[in-house]
Amino acid sequence: MRSPLNAIVIYAKDMDRTADFYQRFFGLASTGKVEGLIELSSTDGGPIILIHQAAKSMKLGQVAVKLVFAVEDVEAFKVKSAELGLTFGSTHQANGYAFANAKDPDKNSVSISSRAYRYCA
Fold first, then answer.
1. Beta bridge partners of 48
2. Span between the terminal Cα atoms of the chain, in Å
3. Mean predicted confidence (pLDDT) in 81-100
């Protein structure tokens, strides 16, 4: 049975602020609020991100999940993001690729990584 990953739900204290973060820094497009959710998608495909209102009792910012965005040039993406107001941490080198980490407005971990491009030349 095939069951491809379709969506990732992010719980947010301020749905609009969180949606704006992913639109501004990662170029995702929004369908606006539908059924109480904000749906974000990439023109390049992949799973959608659904921004869901967090309950007041919910503790946010746990590191059980990290969203990883594929970028060809980590350093160039970091420079562009900094100009827009998002600072990533140090760039780490791994097995033929680089990555750097940051946090979204709800303290969820996000990463940019060139891993998807490491064998493309």
1. 7
2. 34
3. 94
- Token pair, residue 54, equals 């967090």
Asked whether residue 1 is assigned to any structural domain, the reply reads no
Q: What are 74's strand-pairing partners? A: none
Residue-wise pLDDT tens digits, 10-65: 989 999 999 999 999 999 999 888 778 999 999 888 889 999 898 888 777 665 67
Contact (CB, 8 A) for 70 and 114: yes
CATH of residue 18's domain is: 3.10.180.10
For 13, the domain range is: 7-117
**Contact indicator for 7, 50 with CB cutoff of 8 Å:** yes
The region that residue 74 occupies, defined by phi over 0 for left and psi between -120 and 50 for alpha, beta otherwise, is alpha
